[in-house]
Each structure stands twice: as structure tokens, then as C-alpha cells.
TrEMBL record:
InterPro entries: AAA+_ATPase (IPR003593), AAA_N_dom (IPR025753), At3g28540-like_C (IPR058017), ATPase_AAA_core (IPR003959), ATPase_AAA_CS (IPR003960), Mitochondrial_chaperone_BCS1 (IPR050747), P-loop_NTPase (IPR027417). Residues 243-402 form the AAA+ ATPase domain. It comes from the Eukaryota. Belongs to the AAA ATPase family. BCS1 subfamily. GO terms for molecular function: ATP binding; ATP hydrolysis activity. SUPFAM superfamilies: P-loop containing nucleoside triphosphate hydrolases. The keyword Nucleotide-binding applies. Keywords: ATP-binding, Hydrolase, Magnesium, Nucleotide-binding. This is AAA-ATPase. It catalyses: ATP + H2O = ADP + phosphate + H(+). Its cofactor is Mg(2+). Pfam families: AAA (PF00004), AAA_assoc (PF14363), AAA_lid_At3g28540 (PF25568).
Length: 508
């Protein structure tokens, strides 16, 4: 792109137009209305003949509308990305993360753009309307961009060129937007004037797939799945399916389910809607929340198994380990406390069928790309209807840390690719289970003096402790089962004894 220069031809053309305008003003003043219209038509045609250029304006605000025009915003983003190197007068603004400056063309600046060998001109301008009668009303500035191009390119420019500008502009805006983490915070009373049921903060989680401890091939598979989804708009349209995908992340606590959601959002540049089901009054409110979500977002329901009594199968499970039960109780207590803090005492009336409708509604009612993610520690407790394919399309198990996972964490935390202590760690990791959260905690330096060796030793210690604890638990279990067997033997002995007793009772 190069700045536009006024040629002599333009100057001649300008003076011709000015002469016509002057003639037109005289005719208008002295001729009757019909004659005036006649001359007006002709003047326009003659002007069109001498001035074969088309102009299109993109106003920031249309009419009295308060909302900024999307077309204007897209042009602004497109020009700011494509002209900041060529425009001579630029304006600077603070970017999304408050650290970088974004440059865009200043008012009344002109630049050229080329598309398939055709040249077009863009100009940024503004109309200043005088202040209203009350002096404290400031002057109103109405900004707009003006696109000029030759009439012979009309079809291409109004068709594919503008489509290209809009598409690229929207993509740039999405890339540069400040992403948000929305939540339907428990107990929060939405004032009647507030238009949305979600409250939000800036989403700035640093997790990426690169920093996640997982088997590399599994990681690749998930990344590919997500990227394919995000690029499959046409495919979904062609097969007649809504552009949505459901993920179920399951596994023990501390294996990276929540971290993966953040990594997903960062990979695809999506917003995150953290849906707290216990804070939703009923099914109707759930639908309202759904309708308010925007496209390019992930709707997350964490710990779906203890959110509500949605899990028909859960109650049927008679055998649960004491640890599992304790974990569940802790989460439920934490949830209750959170709810009480928020001042909400009403319990949620959301039902399983309400949630199923919510997911299916998401599939059919809302356009645009959306992911829905459920996390759970106990996949077996979920109702099969909730997680069947078509609702939760991809089931991902996050498990204990593998040696490959450890290497990722060692690289993240200690910038170590290899070390003599790695072999010991590998052996221990093959013999015992440890969550990535525990590995991460051990690799975290606890003081400024802690070096890599200290952190690795601390991990080895933790692994050895875990191994001993597992061995002790196993021994305990064996002992318990032996005791049970002994009981059984005892009872058998008792029975035998009784039998003998009975035998004794039999007279010889
Ligand atoms: N796979 C992983 N890769 C990298 N870091 C991890 C991984 N898993 C856990 N961590 C670390 O452990 C912490 C806890 O992990 P996270 O909250 O994602 O676990 P979770 O599976 O969601 O647990 P819960 O089931 O209790 O919600 C994270 O802050 C992260 O630092
Ligand atoms: Mg979690």
C-alpha cells in the first residue's frame, strides 16, 4: 500500500465538476421543479461520465443507534493491520493486554489497497456536528471510512473485495479481542437493568498444550481434533449438523482437567463460560444462560457428578471406596459453603432432562462455534444419556503422570531436558502412581536457593513415600483379606465342629 497522490487529471476533473455544480445551482434557482429534476438527472449522468469513481461509506454509528457498526469495526481492524506500515499519519492506542501499542491510520489520512490487480482508495474521515443548545453537550464526531474505486471494478470490489475485507477484519478483531471468563456466580442477584445473567473477568490463564504433561501422541490427537473442529464450518453446514462439539474430561483430581480447558481456550482463542449448575434456579434459567452465550466459546460444567443429582446411576453404586467418598463429600461441602457465602439458600431445580435439553438446545438453537466440556472424577457415575456420543462427542481420560509427562514438567519448571536423576525417577514412576499436580508441586522451587537437584530429590522422596504408602496399603489389604479368610475358616471350623458336635451327639 502507498499513500495516494493527487494527479493533474484529478485536478482537471475537479474543476469540471465544480463548473457543473455551479451551473446546477443557477438552474435550480431559476427553473421550475420538473425542469430542475430533469437537469439534476442529466448533471448526475454527465458527472458520472467525467467522474467514473464509486464511493462507499462505512459509518461508525448508523442513525441513532448506540451500537457500533460491525462493518466499520471490521474495516478499522483491516486497515489498521494493512496500512500501519504505509500510512504517514497514524494514531496509537493501548492494545488488549495494556502492554502494546496498536497503530491505525489517523483521521483524513488516505491509503491505497490492491486486490487482484485492482486499485482502491481508503480514507478515514469524520463529520463534526455542532453542539446542542445546552453548552455542556460536547460536539459530536461521527467517524467514517470512505472507499473509492473505479466503476469498471464495481462487481469485484462490491463482491469479493469487500467480503475479503470483512472476513479479514473480523478475524483480526477476534484475534485481538480481550478474551473473557464468564461465570453465573452463585447467589449473585442480577439487577433488573442488567442485561446479562453472566458476569465476567478478563481470561488470562497461561496454560497451553505445550505446557501440559501428557503422552505426546494423545496431546497431538486432541489438538488436531480441536483445530479440525474450528476449521469445519463448511463441513458442518454440508452435513446439516450444528457447529458444536462436546468433550468429557475425566480422571482423578489433579490430573489436569481444568488446565486442559484453559489450554483449549487458548489454542482456539475462545471465551470460557464457567457454568455453576447449583447456582441455576431452574431449567428456564438454564436456557436463558445458554441463549446469552456467544459464539467461539467453551461452556464448561466442572465436576458434573456432584453438581446436581443428575446421575441416575450414582445412587445404585453400592461399592465406593472410602477415599472416593471423602473426596466427593469434600467437594460437596465446598460447594455448599460457596453457595452460603453467596447468600443463596434456594436449591437448584435443574433436572437431568433440563440439562439434556440444554445441551441439545445448544446443538440446535444457537449458531456459531461452541464447545461444551464436562469434567468429572467419576465417569462411571454419570448417566449414560448425558455422555453418549452426539452429546459428549469425545471422551478424554486424564490420568496419573507418565515419565513423558514428567519430562514436560521438568522442562517447564526447571528448564531441564535431561539429568542423571531422571533414570531413578523413571523407575519409580513405573512402580507408583503420582498425579501431575503432585509432580508439579515437587518441582516447584521452595526458596530462591533451591536448584534443579533439590527439586528432583524432593520428587524422588515423594515418589518413594508414595511407593511405601502403596505397599503399606497393599499389605493392609492382604491382611484384611487374610482376616476375612480366617473368619471364613473359623466359621467353617465352627461348622465342622458343630458337625462333629452333632456327630458326637450321634450315639455310637
Ligand atoms: N497434565 C498436567 N500438565 C501440567 N500441569 C498439570 C497437569 N495436571 C495438573 N497440573 C498442575 O496441577 C494443578 C491442578 O490441576 P487441575 O486443576 O487442572 O486438575 P483437575 O484435574 O482439574 O483436578 P480436579 O479434579 O480436582 O478439579 C494445575 O494448576 C497444574 O499446575
Ligand atoms: Mg478441576
Amino acid at each position: 500500500m502507498v499513500p495516494l497522490k493527487m494527479t493533474e487529471m484529478w485536478a482537471t476533473m475537479g474543476s469540471t465538476i465544480a463548473s457543473f455544480m455551479f451551473m446546477w445551482a443557477i438552474i435550480r434557482q431559476y427553473c421550475p421543479y420538473e425542469l430542475g429534476r430533469f437537469f439534476e438527472n442529466y448533471t448526475q449522468r454527465i458527472m458520472g461520465f467525467f467522474y467514473p469513481y464509486i464511493r462507499i461509506s462505512f459509518h461508525e454509528f448508523l442513525g441513532d443507534r448506540i451500537k457500533r457498526s460491525e462493518a466499520y469495526a471490521a474495516v478499522e481492524a483491516y486497515l489498521s493491520a494493512n496500512t500501519s506500515k504505509s500510512a504517514k499519519r497514524l494514531k496509537a492506542e493501548i492494545g488488549k493486554d495494556s502492554s502494546n501499542l496498536v497503530l491505525s491510520m489517523d483521521e483524513y489520512e488516505r491509503v491505497t489497497d490492491e486486490f487482484q490487480g485492482m486499485k482502491v482508495w481508503w480514507m478515514s474521515s469524520k463529520v463534526v456536528s455542532p453542539s446542542r443548545s445546552m453548552s455542556y453537550y460536547p460536539e459530536q464526531e461521527k467517524r467514517y471510512y470512505k472507499l473509492s474505486f473505479h466503476n469498471k471494478y464495481r462487481e469485484v470490489i462490491t463482491g469479493s473485495y469487500l467480503e475479503h475485507v470483512m472476513r479479514e477484519g473480523k478475524e483480526i478483531r477476534l484475534r485481538n479481542r480481550q478474551r473473557k471468563l464468564y461465570t453465573n456466580s452463585p447467589g449473585y442477584k442480577w439487577p433488573s437493568y442488567k442485561q446479562t445473567m453472566w458476569s465476567h473477568i478478563v481470561f488470562e490463564h497461561p496454560a497451553t498444550f505445550e505446557t501440559m504433561a501428557m503422552k505426546p501422541e494423545k496431546k497431538r490427537e486432541i489438538i488436531e481434533d480441536l483445530l479440525t473442529f474450528s476449521k469445519s464450518k463448511d463441513f458442518y453446514a454440508r452435513i446439516g449438523k450444528a457447529w458444536k462439539r462436546g468433550y468429557l474430561l475425566y480422571g482423578p483430581p489433579g490430573t489436569g482437567k481444568s488446565t486442559m480447558i484453559a489450554a483449549m481456550a487458548n489454542l482456539l482463542s475462545y471465551d470460557v463460560y464457567d457454568l455453576e449448575l447449583t447456582a441455576v434456579k431452574d431449567n428456564t434459567e438454564l436456557r436463558k444462560l445458554l441463549i446469552e452465550t456467544t459464539s467461539k466459546s467453551i461452556i464448561v460444567i466442572e465436576d458434573i457428578d456432584c453438581s446436581l443429582d443428575l446421575t441416575g446411576q450414582r445412587n445404585k453404586k453400592a461399592e465406593k471406596s472410602a477415599d472416593d467418598e471423602m473426596e466427593k463429600q469434600n467437594k460437596e461441602v465446598a460447594r455448599k459453603e460457596l453457595k452460603d457465602e453467596g447468600g443463596s439458600s434456594s436449591s437448584s431445580k435443574v433436572t437431568l432432562s433440563g440439562l439434556l435439553n440444554f445441551i441439545d438446545g445448544l446443538w440446535s438453537a444457537c449458531g456459531g462455534e461452541r464447545l461444551i466440556v464436562f469434567t468429572t472424577n467419576y465417569v462411571e457415575r454419570l448417566d449414560p444419556a448425558l455422555i453418549r456420543r452426539g452429546r459428549m462427542d469425545k471422551h478424554i481420560e486424564l490420568s496419573y503422570c507418565s515419565f513423558e509427562g514428567f519430562k514436560v514438567l521438568a522442562k517447564n519448571y526447571l528448564t531441564l531436558e535431561t539429568h542423571s536423576m531422571f533414570d531413578t525417577i523413571q523407575l519409580l514412576m513405573e512402580e507408583t502412581k503420582i498425579t501431575p499436580a503432585d509432580v508439579a508441586e515437587n518441582l516447584m522451587p521452595k526458596s530462591l536457593l533451591d536448584d534443579a537437584e533439590k527439586c528432583l530429590s524432593s520428587l524422588i522422596e515423594a515418589l518413594e513415600e508414595a511407593k511405601e504408602a502403596a505397599a503399606a496399603k497393599k499389605a493392609e489389604e492382604v491382611k484384611d483379606s487374610n482376616t476375612n479368610e480366617e473368619d471364613t475358616f473359623e466359621s467353617l471350623d465352627d461348622r465342622d465342629y458343630k458337625t462333629i458336635e452333632n456327630r458326637d451327639a450321634i450315639p455310637f
